[in-house]
Amino acid sequence: MSEASSHYSVLLSESLVGLAIKPDGFYVDGTFGRGGHSRALLAQLGPMGRLVAFDQDPEAVAYAKASIDDPRFEIVYSSFADLLSVADRAGWTGKVDGILLDLGVSSPQLDEAERGFSFMREGPLDMRMNPAVGLSAKDWLIAVEEEQLARVLKHFGEERFAYKIARAVSHDAKAGLLNTTKDLAELVARVVPKKDKHKHPATRTFQAIRIAVNGELDALKQVLDASLAVLAPQGRLSVISFHSLEDRIVKQFMRDQSQVKDLFPDLPVLVATTEARLKRIGKAIFPSEQECSQNVRSRSAVLRVAEKI
Q1: Where are the transmembrane segments (predicted)?
Q2: CA angle, 36 as apex, 34 and 40 as ends, to 5°?
Q3: Mean pLDDT calculated for residue range 195-201
Q4: Where are the domains of the chain?
Q5: Pairing between strand 231-241 and 96-102?
Q6: Beta strand 302-308 with 231-241: parallel, antiparallel or unpaired?
Q7: Per-residue pLDDT tens digits for 34-68
Q8: Which residues are annotated as a binding site?
């Protein structure tokens, strides 16, 4: 089985329906991964359609160049946080008919032990989406202060034993004892006093450190803000999230941008307002039972769609 055929794209049909694809439209896939959404989108475009995909993972970019030979397609080696600057340089700000964001870690990143994302596979403690940029998880854990690590685990991982884990992890990291994903996973498993029935005790810790190392939530806020400038009128924004922190940011952004705001709420009369910039399309969409049974990683996914006014 090829890499493309074995990769499962979450909420594939639902996210494309949300984009309301026009055959001659111009679309952006902010998270190419292994190209499942991009291929399905290209299949719905006519000869005049165009798709630009982003990915900060050099392996994903190399795979895109090797596997998709289509004049309508372009891959950009960059984080989607750079969407606005790329659009401005290329001259397509305000001209995009739809933006698709499939957040989180791609299946190949989780499945390849050497990338260091998964506590299920022993590999170097890395976790960077782009291995050429920033600190690895190992080096970040050595550099970060215990108190800051605890805040990261509590906020980004929603970990109730954040301070207990941070104390142990900070000690072992600075002592040079944390070199692999197995080292970290086993340490957390020893430290956590109470285990969840159906979740590895290191799940939240790995999520939190990965988000911090890659600056994922800040990047998400940047691309959401950029979408307002990059989209054409009636352009669609289709976002798939995989945990509550991401979904909360997306939900709040779409809600806030769909409201008319009073700029001076404390005054007794309405002096000035800001226009709503988005219209929410439908309600949050979740994977079907069938999709969840076919792909366990779909279980936590949620799709939200909005349209630029």
Answers
A1: none
A2: 150
A3: 85
A4: 3-102+216-308, 113-214
A5: parallel
A6: antiparallel
A7: 999 999 999 999 999 999 999 999 999 999 999 99
A8: 35-37, 55, 80, 102, 109
CATH class given for the domain over 113-214: mainly alpha
Q: How many CA atoms lie within 13 A of 98 on its CB side?
A: 26
Distance of alpha carbon 124 from alpha carbon 114, whole angstroms: 6
Which residues does the annotation place in the binding site for S-adenosyl-L-methionine? 35-37, 55, 80, 102, 109
How far is it between the farthest Cα atoms of the chain?
67
Phi, psi at 50, each rounded to 5°? -145, 140
Q: Which amino acid, one-letter code, is at 307?
A: E
Contacts of 263 by beta carbon, 8 Å cutoff, 6+ apart? 271, 272, 273, 274
The span from the CA of 235 to the CA of 304, in Å, is 14
How far apart (Å, rounded) are the C-alpha atoms in residues 61 and 9? 17
**The pLDDT value given to residue 266:** 66
Q: What architecture (CATH level 2) is domain 3-102+216-308?
A: 3-Layer(aba) Sandwich (3.40)
